[in-house]
Amidohydrolase family protein (Paenibacillus agri), 291 residues
Amino acid sequence: MPIIDIHIHLSDIDSFHQTAKDLSKVDYSAAGLKAEFDKNDVILGIGMGVTEQSKGAFPDSSSPNPMPLDLEETVPPFLMECVGINPNMLGGKQASEELDRIEARLQAPEVAGIKLYAGYYHHYVYDKIYTPIYELAAKYDVPVVIHTGDTYSMNGLLKYSHPLTVDELALQQRGVNFMICHLGDPWVMDAAEVVAKNPNVYADLSGLVVGDRPHFERFMNEPLFMDHFRRALVYSDHYEKMLFGTDWPLAPIDLYAEFVRRLVPEQHHEKVFYENAFGLFPRIKDRIAAL
């Protein structure tokens, strides 16, 4: 079965390098990612753009918009990109230039959507500072992907990344599709309700386990851990709006795929691992056709 991994990273972020080296034991490079894709029949990935201006600075308030995949010079042909947004640069004199650069990048065929780092940046997703971003998303018919739940940085603030904040946003912006990352973990039941209630809200299952095989074996063999997510999936009962993602390099793709296969009932695997991505990311079809 072909797989589309809708949540990976390929940016020069210090914490990603350290996680790849010390925890997940993956080759954090485009070549390393391609090798894992080939091994696991992943035909396309979507990378979440993010940058830091100095080592260890993420979430970096000085990063210019849009934040790209900057580990390599160009986006590899087997990837698409969600352009990352630094809201701290949208409120000053430079806002117009920032928005112009974002809009120009959204016109590139390899761009699949927009990524907001809620929690990392201290703004609620329904804050007016993001309104021009949602207008661009509607104009170019691309989804907005939103980090929710725990932050991979002690400098994040969880009140901004709670999935319930997406409920208010979804009502305000019915013309835009949104994806809740990480199923809002640890608030997975809240995220499940937001997905079930709002026709324009989806969720991905990325980043729920970080590490190598011993980490995965430990958690996959813990019923309480697995049931934490299964309960939310059963409650939401919208497998057509759940998408597979790994959050690579936080975990090897083969282990993460095994984990999600155990979470999701087998009759929904083709939807979650492949078909649902086409419904949320309209540009995927053309990108795959060009491969």
Remarks:
- The beta strands are 3-8, 42-48, 79-85, 111-116, 144-146, 178-180, 201-204, 242-243.
- The chain has a mean pLDDT of 97.
- The domain at 3-290 is CATH 3.20.20.140 (TIM Barrel).
